[in-house]
Write a structure and sequence with these properties.
alpha+beta, globular, Aminopeptidase, transferase, RimJ/RimL family protein N-acetyltransferase
Length: 157
């Protein structure tokens, strides 16, 4: 069984390292930016959303915890931001560490988030997923998410 808890300040540097590496790779691949520019953009995104680390207002950064071999382990991360006026939240980042994939932790985490949101009278979860991320697409579809649009771009020149 998985639980979600607020990330502690001492855990934020590890999240920062993971996020900048992962997101900058996505930025470089999707938009053709240099690695250096992509890293700068990823760092700026994280800094603007979390100027005070996980204690920042407006965004919630969670650790996914599960019992693994008799011990409680952090098995991933979930970053979302509630928009109370719209009774919704947007997931910015959802990651299960590679070594814990395929064990149902992703499905459990989505279910745990849904329960927390329902208790807070939040009625919709939104997110963006890359078209090539088949594993994530499958997880979200199995969890009841519907495709509501497509992001597209075209390079000129």
């Amino acid at each position: 069984m998985i639980s979600l808890r607020i990330m502690r300040q001492d855990e934020f540097p590890a999240y920062r390292s993971y996020f900048v590496e992962d997101y900058s790779r996505e930025i470089a691949e999707n938009y053709g930016h240099s690695v250096e520019l992509a890293i700068n953009l990823a760092e700026a995104e994280l800094q603007s959303s979390f100027p005070d680390g996980p204690d920042s207002k407006g965004h919630e950064l969670l650790c996914l915890e599960a019992r693994v071999n008799g011990a409680t382990k952090v098995v991933g991360y979930l970053w979302h931001s509630v928009q109370a006026d719209l009774s919704s939240t947007f997931i910015y980042d959802f990651y299960v560490f590679d070594k814990y994939r395929g064990q149902g932790f992703g499905k459990q985490a989505i279910h745990a988030l849904e329960n927390q949101l329902k208790a807070a009278e939040i009625h919709e979860i939104k997110l963006r997923v890359a078209y090539y991320n088949k594993r994530a697409l499958k997880l979200y579809e199995q969890a009841g998410f519907l495709i509501t649009g497509f992001n597209m771009s075209k390079k000129l020149g």
